[in-house]
Protein: CHAT domain-containing protein
Organism: Isoptericola halotolerans
Amino acid sequence: MLRDIAPLDPERHGVWVVELRVRALVGEAACVYALTGSLGNARRLVGEALAVATAAGEPRLEALAHGQEGLLHVRSGNAGAALDAFDRALRSVEPSNHRDLAVLHINRAAAALEIGDLAAAVRSNESALAHAQAGQYDRYAAFAQLNLGLARYREGDFPAALRELEAAAARQPGGPDGWSEVSRAQILLDAGLVSEAEQVLADAADLFVTDDLTGERADALYGRAQCALLLRRFDDAMRWAAQAARAFTRVGNSVWALRATVVRLEGRLADDRERAGLSRSTLRRRAERALRLADDGEAHGPGTGRDVAVAARLLAVEWALLAGDVARAVEIARAVPRRLSSDSPLPLRVHHRSVLAQVAFAQGDRRAGLRAVRGGHQILADHRARVGSVDAVTAAAAHGGRLARVDVEAAMATGRASAVFDATERGRAAFAGAARVRPPNDPGLAELLVQARRAGEDARELAAGPEADDRTRSAQRAAESYRLQEQARRRSWQLSGSAGSLVPRPATAAATVDRLRRAGTEEVVVSYLLTERITALRADGTGVRSVNLCPAAELLELVRRVRGDTEVLANGLIPPRMRDVAAASARRSLARIDDLLLAPLEVSGALYVAARGDLLGVPWAAMPSRAGRATSVNSWVDLSSIGPAPAPPRVVVVAGPDLAAAEEEARLVADVWDDALLLAGPDATCGRTGAALEGATVVHLGAHGRHEPDNPLFSAVRLADGSLYAHELDGTDLSGAVVVLSACEVGRASTRVGGEPLGLTSVLLRLGARAVVAAVAPLRDDVAVRVMPRLHASLREGLEPAAALAHALADEVEPVPLVCFGPMPLVSP
């Protein structure tokens, strides 16, 4: 095109020749940079375009050239130069030229965001959005809203950021593009929603390969490397980070190439932590490599290169500590800022505190180490308070794992059980307890859940249909239900809320011992640590001691066997002889678990268990030594004070469909209480049940239950009109309620990245329930009909839920997989 228009004289043919020449040069510059990464050649073309526009006296076209120069600087990582270029461009544009003003403000906002000037980024994005809307440029409005979402997230407002991104996607003609998806994934990743972010990035990377957009594909690879790092797939992290660095280098973006190199080194360091036998010289060489990277980052100035320099120095400190060179680690750490600004990425700020703690602990300064640990937990707490939903709160724990391990390892080095207890609970409490306590009240979310429920019911009914294509249609409706569930999850992340005073304080050994001593009972608190071996921290009114118990592999195999046996016992159709064999096998395995986990601890009274992972799936109340004794279980030591049960109680009893004895069980339970609300048959809908839960003090749900390991917030009980999901209870106030789930396996939980358990039971506890009685394995109907009325009778008599469950199970011959979950059941004085 340039050859064709070169002979044309603007004075003879008009100004359109100048405009065509300028736009052709600017367009060629963009293509040269995108395809070759040559910033010099691209800027030469832009300079030629600027000369043509200036010679013709066309400020509008000068602005076009300045704008393209700014965009090249943004893509190459020089945000300061980009801001200058965009400001020159903005001075040359007519106020009525909404298109060019929108584009320039969008790009200026991106540059401001790059150097951390959030206020300027928000102002530019808002200006861009106003101009785009005035000119009805939907695509530019979408870009402006996308960048506004990124700025909101950098301000710390996760729900608002995702709302802006969803709105941006809705504005884009043809749906979201790859760049907007990469931005959304980066926010999900920083929030801890790692698996979700990786899936978005995988799709985006494929899109960029198709479009041959090297720089944008590099962004996707960079994000995937970060995801793999959190998922502990270190080889993938290093490979993708190296690919991202090469791609950034090809397009001349040296700053982001350095950032990708930081991620590659993070993967190498994480792998080194788990490998034995590395020489000190190797570890020292890696520390020096990280320091060279830090110097490269600093060469880019205090803005764009700051985070690279800090992150690389933190890695160098850790490698020096791995090499046993504390003096060198201290020396390197002196060059690290003592505080990072709030606009630094959340993972970097937490890592910074973790490394400062390691240095202090290595020097023997435990007080300074704990100060750094608590600072890291405060950063996480501030983030947690902003995110709102249960899903997002538990996801954010992904960024706290390393900090918690540093704390526990340092505590173990002291040899004091009380220090290990305190460190363990600091890590566990960081993301335990309530999420938001204000109901979302979002009609769009409610409609998505209704549609998901309807599709799920269609799938269930079609699966039993007589027609040849019923199974195919069932699978299609099941897939549709899952798709709607995922949409509901994404929408819930956009809803704000506050946990207020329900954000927990971690239990300490001193407070726990004092509580037990003042109670004057024989209750024991046991906190289990699950690594290659299982360690117990046993607390009673006299103190805390540590007990080394057994290899984890042996115990986990026994837990697996018990689960298999209880599944057989739950099948009412198997022959009595087979049931007897399964019962005997379950009793043997439970007795062995009892010997491994409890016998060495000498627990003669009530027991409160705090555990994570597979230990939460143990049917604790069914162990021989726990017969007739109260046993409570939780994922952390919750010292929340429990007042007396309110009188008169407000009782809700619900019976789901297609269970032979559900309505009989519900009537027997309701008869125990005065004026219980009984919902059965067509009255037992999700809507009526959800409304009845608000303000209830005792809730009984007898229904088919299902735990969804891959999507635990959609674990559910089935009611008259379909599944009541754990997800749709988010925001319900269950403060002080005792909830009994007479349903199969809804006491189970899936462990998220970061260690947080998630399932129906954990959601109910996060909503304030004082106790949840639920099954960790299938529960047979006839067992439920016998046990549940006895349980409620004991609750009415004033027994604490764990004691009531122990009394209800006392006469059962076969092991029953019911567990009482909740806070420490000591009534406040």
